[in-house]
Amino acid sequence: NLMTEPCDLSAVDARRLIGDGILSPVELFDSCQARIEAVNPTVNAVVAERFEVGRKEAEGAADAVANGEELPPLHGLPIGVKDANAVGGLRATYGSLIYKDNVPTEDEGLVTAVRTAGAIVAGKTNTPEFTAGANTTNDVYGTTCNPFDTVLTCGGSSGGTAVALATGMLPLAMGSDIGGSVRIPATFCGIVGHRPTPGLVPYDRRAMAMTPLDLQGPLARTVGDAALLLSAMAMPGGRDPMAFPRVPADFRNLEPVDLSSLRIAVSPDLGCAPVAKNIRCVFDTRMSGLSNHVALLEERDPNFGPILDVFWILRGMYFAAAHKHHYEEHYDDLGANVRSNYEAAMKMTMADVGWACQEQMRICKSFDDLFEDYDVLICPGVGVPPFPHTDGFPKEIDGAPMENYVQWVGLTSSLSVTGHPVTAIPCGLEPSGTPFGIQVVGPKFGDRFTLSVALVLEELFAGHPDTARPVADIGGLKS
After folding, report:
1. Separation CA 321–CA 340 (nearest Å)
2. 36: confidence class by pLDDT, cuts 50, 70, 90
3. How far apart are CA 16 and CA 173, in angstroms?
4. How far apart are the first and last CA of the chain?
5. Which of 74, 252, 255, 424 is the most exposed place for a label (fewest CB within 10 A)?
6. 291 vs 422: CA distance, rounded Å
7. H or E stretch including 81?
8. What is residue 208's predicted lDDT score, i.e. its pLDDT?
9. Contact between residue 119 and residue 85 where contact means Cβ atoms under 8 Å apart
């Protein structure tokens, strides 16, 4: 599968070639547009296109190179913006019929940040309604398919983002993550996604002022690309009460970590999440292969206890804040996921909320203790292989029924509760032929370190066909 198109270059390589005057931003933009036009009709990842304006911006970017101007970090790189974010002049539906005709007049803070860093918005990427659910489908734009098998789900809620990256439509794209919305589609599509420490990436459009759950993160094909995008997204600014009060961190030059010095805890299910036997087997095999390369690798479950119930209640608080007016004023246009989650939230009591907050404090303290003994914790990215996208969510895992539409994503949602940085990276295929991936969980505020560990693991995995990043067959997807 020879990569010859500019759109297949890593973002880091493309940016270097642009800076050296070897690759024109116009050539890169045209290559991305051509790939979108060839493959998107089959997978439905990019929904609102911004080709005309984007190409003009690419011409401006080419002029800047020719004139010897100082070039910002993402100069000339096309980017996808999730359809849960606002780009001025471009339709923003949030995946909901309520907003099917909504066109914001200006960019939101994050979009301003990446455009200031030189990125060119090529279009919006598909999401489920209000990012609720880990299967990317909505009544405005329809379903986004997994590029490895179009009958299957690509995950969600940043599904359009992950598929656009996996198929070479764009070198960079943004996602959001409440219960796994960056990490699940990254895992199902064989790419990289980073869930930052809450507050690292300012986000002033949350419904709740202070919550570790709702945040924005980068997705890309490689760890280096994700780190490059994170540098631009982590620009302090806006009116986010949680934003770190500091100079932006530059994640572009990650320190090389000595793989042989690492102490790694591994957990197939975090002691709390439903995980199918076939995923456990693959995880076990891949981790035993890793054990020869590191200082220490041992199985250790965090003491998460009832963390999935804690997540459901904290999520309920978020839905109560975000969706009251949607539920009360636009009930008929609201999908089942948002309705059911809002209704469940309305049945929760202040006693439930108090209990969840107290448990969360216990869990956070206990999880921090784990990082005194280990450098990182590794677990699988998702507890099941991709399922048919017509299913919505798996109703059971190995015979155990799922109580609600988020229980099956326990491997990712539990980690959202603690606020630790997590990098999801691909690790070959699982037996049925779809991508398998792991989550590398780092110490609190350790985004740089977590990405550095993910980088050395990515290098190690790349050296073996069983663990290298899987690449979708683009030829088979062209309409």
Report:
1. 15
2. very high
3. 18
4. 18
5. 255
6. 20
7. strand 78-82
8. 93
9. no
